[in-house]
UniProtKB/TrEMBL annotation:
Subcellular location field: Cell envelope
Keyword terms, alphabetized: Cytochrome c-type biogenesis, Disulfide bond, Redox-active center
Gene3D superfamilies, per database record: Glutaredoxin
Cited InterPro entries: Redoxin, Thioredoxin-like_sf, Thioredoxin_domain, Thioredoxin_ResA/DsbE_sf
Major subcellular site: other
Superkingdom as given in the UniProt entry: Bacteria
Lineage of the species this protein comes from: Bacteria, Pseudomonadati, Bacteroidota, Flavobacteriia, Flavobacteriales
Keyword Plastid tagged: no
Protein name in the entry: TlpA family protein disulfide reductase
Amino acid sequence: MIIPQTRMPIQVFFNKAIGLFAPSINDAGSREKLANYDFMMASREGRQVNLKDFSGKVVLVNFWATWCPPCIAEMPSLQKLYDDYKGKVAFVLVTSDDEATVVNFMEKNGYTMPFYFQRSLAPKEIRSSGIPATYLIDLNGEIVIDKVGAANWNSDTVRATIDMLLTQ
């Protein structure tokens, strides 16, 4: 039997131990396009942000929670990707968790990625019943990657895809 206080660290460990793999790239001909960017969020400071603000940019949207072991397992790879692509790619990490819990989690782990609190329903193309759910959206709103479950976001595949999207 697992002691309740150790369950989360053990689950995160096993998520990392089995290995996080690079997500698959959607074929160009079968990519869904984001029809509606209207999605309200709030920043850490309480500022209202709409996904529309990022329209026309390469955007990585990640839905996550502090209580989700796969979410926690993939966070270091997202941070490494953010460190290299901040200012070039819009990183939008979205959660419905308690604000104080999220701020504490991010600070405790040294994560500097921007995070937002969900304030409205996400567009249907980027809505999922599971987390983590991550979407890489190109300049034209096409969903190049849609991944439910933990992944290695700092992989060569993801980096090459982002580099290609940034040159279009």
